[in-house]
């Protein structure tokens, strides 16, 4: 496991972040766990790192919209990061910024993606994996055509890219 402070300075725009929810304490978390169960996946969500100055943000599509959130907000819960070998272009960054606060999240898109019936970028609605695939294609990244987090993770690993588990502090067992 890598701590956020150890990896923070190496993260760059275009890197992928995968998350897994493990809590059952809200209706939202219940929905996320159902996605994980239905997809038989460790991952329930994916976003893309955006650097603004020295800050690291995550561009992500969540109900009800596309947003930028400080990546450090995910570090307490933990996340997986896959550094990419495709730098983010100005066009990709402009696209992501144009969607923040206005591009809507669609659960229907997520259902269509699960059944591999989603035409990526066909409309203004995005589920998380569709947003990442559509945006990263603008810079030449190849993340496959199935807009579910597990499929993107599989594509990344098949390309020989690394994936690291990141958390704020290491957990010490037996102490």
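-> sequence recovered:
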């Amino acid at each position: 496991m890598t701590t956020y402070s150890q990896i923070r300075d190496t993260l760059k725009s275009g890197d992928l972040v995968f998350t897994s929810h493990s809590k059952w304490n809200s209706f939202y978390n219940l929905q996320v766990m159902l996605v994980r169960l239905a997809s038989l996946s460790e991952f329930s969500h994916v976003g893309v790192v955006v650097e603004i100055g020295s800050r690291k943000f995550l561009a992500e599509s969540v109900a009800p919209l596309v947003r930028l959130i400080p990546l450090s907000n995910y570090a307490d819960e933990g996340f997986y990061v896959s550094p990419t070998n495709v730098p983010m272009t100005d066009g990709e960054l402009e696209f992501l910024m144009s969607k923040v606060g206005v591009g809507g999240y669609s659960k229907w898109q997520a259902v269509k993606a699960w059944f591999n019936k989603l035409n990526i970028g066909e409309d203004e609605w995005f589920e998380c994996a569709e947003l990442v695939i559509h945006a990263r294609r603008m810079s030449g990244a190849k993340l496959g055509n199935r807009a579910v987090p597990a499929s993107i993770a599989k594509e990344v690993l098949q390309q020989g890219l690394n994936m690291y588990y990141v958390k704020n502090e290491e957990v010490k067992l037996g102490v």
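Helices lie at 4-7, 27-39, 90-99, 107-114, 128-137, 149-158.
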